[in-house]
Amino acid sequence: MQISEARARYIRWLLATKDLSPHTIRAYDGDLLSLERHLDPPGDIVGLDRESVISFIEIQKANGLSPASLKRRTSSLRGFCRWLVAQDLLAADPWNGANLVLGRPRRLPRTLPAHELDRLIQSLKLAAGVERGDVPDPRLIAKRPHESTTLLAVALMVSTGVRVHEVVGIRCRDIDLPGRAIRLLGKGRRERQVFLTNDWIANLTSAYTEARSVLGLQHLHLLFNLHHDPLTPPAMRSRLAKAAIAAGLTPRVTPHMLRHTAATQLIEAGVDIRYIQRLLGHASLSTTEIYTHVSDRALRRVVSDADVLGRFAQAR
Question: Which of 118, 141, 227, 313 is deepest in the core (most CB within 10 A)?
Answer without folding.
Answer: 141
